[in-house]
Amino acid sequence: MKTSEIFKRAKQIADLEGTSFISWNESINLINENYITLYQKLIDMGDSAFVRDFKVPSGVYALPSDFWQLKGVFISNNGKLYTVERRAANGSFNSTCYEIKNNVLHIYGTSDSVLVQYFPKPKKLTYKPNDIPLSDLAGIKNDILACNDKVYLYSKLEEDNKYSLNLYDLSGLKTKEKIIEYEHGELNIEKCWLTDGYIVIKTDSSLAVINIYSYNMNALENTDSISYTPLFTESGDLFIVSKTDEATKINMLELTDGGYSLTEVREISYDGDEYYSDNFLEDIFYIKSNVIKHNGAVIENFTADRFAYKDKELYFLRFGAYGKINIENDVLIIDMAPGRIIDFNKLDSETGYGYSSLLFGANIFVRPFVEDTELDYPNSFFFQLLSYMIAIAMKIKQGADATGIQAQLSSMEMTFFDTLGSDAFQSTRITNCY
User: Fold this and answer.
1) What is the pTM assigned to this prediction?
2) Secondary-structure breakdown of the chain: helix, strand, coil percentages, each rounded to the nearest 5
3) CA dihedral 14, 17, 376, 429 (to 10 degrees)
4) Residues 12-26: pLDDT tens digits?
């Protein structure tokens, strides 16, 4: 069942349909707080629906990145599983036992491989907020080149047959017309980006950067001996990557009235046409000739038009779809993206919104970047319980009486937990729980 369906049912139970007394972010927090509570109850009851396992040889093994709690460590012998006990604080290292230190599993006293069963971190549940139409952009909807947060960069054909670059800010603060003017064929724009402080323009011969506060423009000219490409961090900062035959370097950029200066930050070995990284310039995605790479690893057979880095993942927009590349370099399509893709506005975890698109030529819409998470559990009572728990939380937040719903929840819990099978390893699991 999808998160949106669970939340819709919760609002029905709480008699809050059609209301918006809590924000999207508050509702996401309520959903996840109650989901984690129910998840932990299932763990404590010995339910194995979410259990994952892996086999490792004896010795030392780093726990998976999604490790949450341990269910047990076992040795298989003649088709039977035997429990490996947790090592006591003063226990021997020669007896068969295990311990976990700094998220690393240590197996002692056996040369056999072991089976490790664990509960993964509960996934974060989200649902999509509704698209927001931007009627203010109707006059420039077909001329937008890039956007950032509430600011849109667009081109315009002026009366003198010159073209201009302009900014339209939905908040009004950065709106500016005719930042630069140019003749047809003069600039040869290949791609534009917009940050909090800069307009970045890739042409066939240079990387032009315009300060959107002073409107100073400087062109970093590509030559046979050096070329320049942009790097954008998670927080939206702009760095310049300079490439020569000797080295590829990430540089800080400073624009002045008379030109620009570059200050080297670090050297890298990645050759890209555009780069996206964390704020420490350590985790880097980059694109070269329509091939996406991550810290040197090629992500096969994949291209996209627009990118944004967030929480160790690279989000992308391409024709008909949007999605992300996760830390394991898996390409995940989140949903379809109808209309003409424009750009990422801001991947905003407070609102769920992320990008703009022109839908069917009619209007610009700001659309969510989050997914409508689907929960998989083999018992429908699980989804009912979660809906009732969320409904109670909303009633309490509203300051309303939730007694009736709580009574229904208690009755439902008894029925639900009676359906769970007992766990033969339950006493061992509690002893070994981390």
Assistant:
1) 0.85
2) 20, 45, 40
3) -20
4) 999 988 888 889 999
